[in-house]
Amino acid sequence: MKKQVGNKNRGEEKGDKDKIKNKDKIKNKDKIKNKNKIKIKIKTKGDDNKVKRWPVVASERKGRYWEALNLVEDPEMMVGIVDLGLVYDVEIKDGIAYVTMTLTSLGCPLGPQIMGDVQKELMNFSEIKDVDVNLVWNPAWSPEMMSEDVRYLLWGV
Asked: How far apart are the first and last CA of the chain?
């Protein structure tokens, strides 16, 4: 009686190992894809390159941050991310800017660039010491989230 070598004694063929490896990769991919939130913490060191801003009453500060974030443009659409409806919330607490935002699509190749620009823009405020960007996919972005002006500019409606 001959001994069976490898996995053939379990009824597996050579290609089955590859299928199992690919199945593991798919499982890991699904774990990433199915997360509701991807937390991205962006930190910088030092205060040397901050632009000093004029003092503004606390109740008006949120407006300034939203305006600053609208200077960040989606490189593909050349429109500010606030007008595009990508920014869901901005909160400043204890010197940390908490930004909740999304991208136009899950596979947006320019997401890291946009989030880096968000960080750079908010770090221009002397009262902000750190920026925490929380990238979310729920609710998903849709063209209805754009401002009326941008919809008119892009599509004439």
From this structure: 79
Domain membership of residue 20 (yes or no) is no
More confident residue, 148 or 43: 148
Q: What is the pTM of this model?
A: 0.60
Instruction: Give SS3 for 26.
Output: helix
- Provide the CATH number for the domain around residue 89: 3.30.300.130
Reported as a single tens digit per residue, the pLDDT across 2-43 is 554 444 444 444 444 444 444 443 333 333 333 333 344 433
Using CA atoms of 138, 139, 141, 147 in order, give the dihedral in degrees to the nearest 10.
-150
Q: How far is 64 from 56, CA to CA, in rounded Å?
A: 9
Element (H, E) at 77: none
Q: Is residue 51 part of a domain?
A: yes
Beta bridge partners of residue 80, listed in sequence order: 73
Q: Residue 75: inside a domain, yes or no?
A: yes
